[in-house]
Amino acid sequence: MKAAVVPALSSSWLIKDVPQPQPGPNQVLVKMHASGICYTDVHQTLGHLPGQFPRILGHEPVGEIVATAPDVTARRVGDRVGSAWIQSTCGRCEWCQRGRRMFCPYLKGTGGEAQGGHAEYMLMNADATYLIPDKVSYEQAAPIFCAGYTVYSGLRWADPQPHERVAVLGIGGLGHLAVQYAKAAGFETIAISHSPDKDKMIRELGADEIVRDGKSLTAAGGADITLSTSNSTKSMADSIQGLRPRRQVYRYGRRRRTAFDLADRAALQAHQNHRQPAKWPRISIRSPGLHGPRKS
C-alpha cells in the first residue's frame, strides 16, 4: 500500500510503498477514505512529541472496515468508522484505574506508537473505533476525531450546570466546534473573537453573543466556563476578566513552553487578588489533557 512516511526527524514526508498490515486480535483493517491534517502532525515531524522514525502520522482517520480479526464481534466489514487519539492503554496503572487513560505510560496513540491514517489502509483497535452516521461524510467526520473530540472533552470535564454560561475564546479549528457543542448542549454561549470578519459565521454557528475581550465579556454578564482554544497567552490572560467568581478556564492551545509565562501568571494573580474576596477560591485553570476525554 502507499503511505505518507516521515523517514526521519524534521524531514519531508515521502509517498512510499509499505507492507499492508493485517488485523491481529481485537483489530480491524480500515480502508482510508479521509485523514485529517492537524498541527500536531507538524509537532510530531519536528520531534516535539515523542516517537520513533520512520513513522506514518495521521490521528484523524476515517474509512471503511475491509477485514476484522476472528475475535471481533462488535464491528463488521462495511462499517464506516473512525478512531481518536487513544488506540490502547494498559488498563492497570493508576491513571487507567482513575479513568485518566490519556496519562497511561503504556498508551499507544494513533499516528504515534501506532500507525496513523496517512496511508491507504490502517489497523484500528476494534474497541477504539466509533461508527460514523451514514449522513455524515468522511470529510466532515475526520476532524471530529481530533478537534471535535478535544473540545467536547473539555466541555464534559468542565461539567457546566443548566443555568451557567459558556464562553469560547478563539473561533478557529477548535473554537468553531466548541461553539456548536456548547449551544447544542443547551448552554448560553458567548464567542470571544478578535476577528469581526468571522461574526456572521459565528452567529450561524449558534453563538448568543460575540465579544472582543475580557472587558467586554464582563460587560455582557461574564461566563462561568471559558473554553480557551487560542494559543495566545495574552488573550487567555485577558479573558480571565470576564470569568464569574469561582469559575474555570479550560485551555487547549498548545505551546512549546509552559501554558503561561511568569508575566502572565503575575497578571492573573494580580487580577485574582484585585477582583476576589478572600473567601472565594482562586480561579481554576485546567487542561483536559492531550486529546483526553473524561471516562463516561
Structural write-up:
- This protein has nine helices and 15 strands.
- With 296 residues, it is α/β, with parallel strands linked by helices.
- It folds into two domains: 2-145, Quinone Oxidoreductase, Chain A, domain 1 (Alpha-Beta Complex), CATH 3.90.180; 149-286, 3-Layer(aba) Sandwich (Rossmann fold).
- The chain has a six-stranded parallel sheet with strand order 12-11-10-13-14-15, sandwiched between helices.
- Helix 4 packs across helix 5 (175-184) and helix 8 runs parallel beside helix 9 (262-275).
CATH homologous superfamily heading of the largest domain: Medium-chain alcohol dehydrogenases, catalytic domain
Our count of domains comes out at: 2
How many DSSP H or I helices? 9
* CATH class category of the largest domain: Alpha Beta
Describe the strand arrangement of the main beta sheet, using strand numbers: 12-11-10-13-14-15
Spatial extent as radius of gyration: 21 Å
Question: Strand-residue fraction?
Answer: 15-25%
CATH topology of the largest domain: Quinone Oxidoreductase, Chain A, domain 1
Order of helical and strand elements: EEEHEEEHEEEHHEHEHEHEHEHE
User: Mean pLDDT, rounded to whole units?
Assistant: 87
